[in-house]
Amino acid sequence: MAIAHHPARAAAERTATPTPALAPGRDGTIDAIRTACLLVVVVLHALMVGIENSHGSLVTSVAMDGQPWFAPLTWALQVMPLFFIAGGFASLSQWRQMQSRGEHWTTYVVARTRRLVIPAVAMIAISATGIAIARAAGLSDELAAEAGHRIAQPLWFLAVYIGASALVPAMARLHRLAPKRTVAALSAAIVAVDLTRIVTGIDGIGYANLLFVWLFAQQLGFFARSWRSDLHRASRRTPAVTLVAALTAMVTLMATGLWSTDLIANLNPPTILLALLAVVHLCALRLAKPTLDRAFAHPAVSRLVRIANPRAMTVYLWHMPLIMALIGVLWAAEIPMPEPHSAAWWATRVPWLVSIALVLIPATAVLQRFERIATALPAPKPVASHAALASVIDAAAGVTLVLLAGVANPLAATASVCMLLVSIALGFTGRSVSDDGCPESLGRPA
């Protein structure tokens, strides 16, 4: 049946700015959670920056380090397990869509890798150049190194996320074939690594859980992808009981004294507690999702999420470089910098956060162009499996290099940028998958 359009209304519709639509297969609640988690991390990092003027010298510190009142707050502020759950949900949705179109697993891996790497190249190159200019202008080597390490610290997440994203096709297949056994195997690996770390006293062993803990959280996100939209009263019992059991297990482990009560401290290296926290987050999400779905379906809220979500990674990548630049401007302008935890320091926390927001918001509008470059590139063609794997390894290694050495190290920053550019280039070596020898099973719907 034809629908008559009022001329004035039609003209208004043609001139109005269209609201970006939610892409097929996306979940508004999950997008909101991913964005909120990254913004919580940004606010946390901003509050943890301690700066003061000590006898004419700029002194930096981690403001919350060693504060006994901070540990209980980390139970709410430690949101990385929830982010990886939401990331697993969204990644599986994207991969299944690509499978339904008959696309190859290397196409997914290359697309995800370059989507994360291109903005990182820009951040590392610009930050390293900025620090070099500041050094030439008189910044001490000590402060330059401190700024370089602060800028690089959040990149641990990017290195892990690159690897976890690249493993989505393989982990999705394991989830399809043996979901419970996959989660059980990851759980066993987490426990084995953590106990070995404790028994041997070698903290380095614990970094193996950078793989196992976050893949575990990703698997929980795969389970979340299969939830029904409704949640009847009878089905609320299982997530509620599981949530309480996971919290009880966390408290019991902390009571032994072998694990810190600070859940931020349990991030480096990741411990059993973060895996249990992921279970808590999953159960809480299961209970709250029907309500959240209704809330985020509201047009105004939905539009806000669609505006914020594409900018969240840009904000995450650039918040520390911009915070360091802001500190430099405040220092040069001789703005008073009160001692951390003093009354004056607490009184200036809201203005401090507002100042960061006033820098981040306009800067993000410009810096988001680097993400747009990644999304505007033509869809990658299938590549040889060794090229796809080399691209991922090169990307993760390049990010890890600057994470360990700091952005202020010119050799490390240059090498990192070169490695990341090679990673991007490997994604353009398209070839016929018939010559590839890749497992065809990964191209079938999970």
Structure description:
The protein is mostly helical. The protein has one domain (25-49, 58-443). Helices cover 69% and strands 3% of the residues. The chain contains 19 helices and two strands. It has helices spanning 7-15, 28-48, 70-77, 80-100, 105-136, 141-152, 155-166, 168-177, 179-200, 209-225, 237-255, 272-296, 299-308, 312-332, 343-347, 349-367, 369-376, 385-405, 410-426, and strands at residues 49-54, 57-62. The protein has a two-stranded antiparallel ribbon with strand order 1-2. Helix 2 (28-48) runs antiparallel to helix 4, helix 6 runs antiparallel to helix 14 (312-332) and helix 10 (209-225) packs parallel to helix 12. The protein is globular, with a radius of gyration of 23 Å. The chain starts with 6 loop residues before the first helix and ends in a 20-residue tail after the last helix. The model is unreliable at 1-20 and 434-442 (pLDDT under 50).
Keywords:
single chain, 446 residues, mainly alpha, two-stranded antiparallel sheet, Putative membrane protein, transmembrane helix, membrane, globular
In a few lines, what is going on in this structure?
With 446 residues, this protein is mostly helical. The chain is 69% helix and 3% strand. Residues 1-24 are annotated as: Disordered.
Give the CA-CA distance, first to last residue.
40 Å
Give the overall average pLDDT. Answer: 89
Give the count of structural domains: 1
- Percentage of β-strand residues: under 5%
Q: Specify the number of helices.
A: 19
Question: How large, in whole angstroms, is the Cα Rg?
Answer: 23 Å
Low-confidence stretches: 1-20, 434-442
Outline: globular
